[in-house]
Amino acid sequence: MELWIATGNAGKMKEFEIQLRELADLKLHTQSEIAGFSPRPEDGKTFLDNARIKTKSLKAVRSKDWVMGEDSGLEVTGLGGLPGIHSARYAGPKASDSENVAKLLKMMQIRAVSDRSARFLCTMIVYTPDGQEWIFTGEMKGTIAKAATGQLGFGYDPVFIPEGETKTLAELGPGYKVRLSHRSKALKAFLEKLNEGAPA
Ligand code: IMP
After folding, report:
1. Contact 171/149 with Cβ under 8 angstroms?
2. Which residues in the chain belong to E strands, given as ranges?
3. DSSP category for residue 83
4. Which of 42, 46, 85, 87 for mutating ligand 1's site (highest number of atoms within 8 Å of CB)?
5. Cα 197 to ligand 1 centroid, rounded to whole Å
6. Strands 66-76 and 2-5
7. How far, CA to CA in Å, does 66 sit from each of 13, 16, 70, 136?
């Protein structure tokens, strides 16, 4: 089976490759293989809206293929759920991961946030070759560290300490994430549905 993945995020793609590497019959493709491809802007109001926008953009040019995409982000309780769907652009339209992390820590300091609990959410969409839309979700709970630590992840990994752990995701590494992250849970649900028997 060939699966097209609607992402330009190298960190996410690395996690998908690790999690799916034992499936010898699965060949992964990404939107970057399509010259001139540019997804529609993610201007939805929910993770589901934005997952649909990016996945539909790729399905439009790979209509007969399996196409998967997801939208994910971090919700911090003491910030009323921010950065949420704005996670990738929290510090500005072209913000780097470290700029987003710096803004998050600064906002928590300015607002004297005492409740540092947070969660990552992922909404994944799969379009089957015959045009069905499947939706899967995943969540990972944790807390926000006082400072960034670790080099092994992307995005907010250096400040996210999963529930039951003392280290950040960027210290725990991708091996941890592919077992327990929000994205890996959504992906596992997709693989389970595939195993139940799906259109070829
Ligand atoms: P998206 O590519 O539009 O879904 O943006 C997701 C953004 O949420 C990323 O750029 C990160 O800032 C953040 N994010 C999502 N998942 C993770 C994760 O597993 N670790 C760290 N940050 C994440």
Report:
1. yes
2. 2-5, 27-30, 66-76, 117-127, 133-144, 160-162
3. B
4. 87
5. 30
6. parallel
7. 16, 15, 14, 15
pLDDT digits (tens, 9 = 90+) for 147-171: 999 999 999 999 999 999 999 999 9
Distances (CA, A) of 131 to 24, 142, 186: 25, 36, 20
pLDDT in tens, 72-127: 999 999 999 999 999 999 999 999 999 999 999 999 999 999 999 999 999 999 99
Nearest CA among 28, 70, 18 for reference residue 174: 18
Total number of residues shown for the chain? 200
Of the CATH numbers 3.40.50.620, 3.20.20.140, 3.30.310.50, 3.90.950.10, which one belongs to the domain with range 2-196? Answer: 3.90.950.10
Domain ranges for the chain, please list them.
Answer: 2-196
- Nearest atom in ligand 1 to 169's CA: 20
**Which pTM value belongs to this model?**
0.95
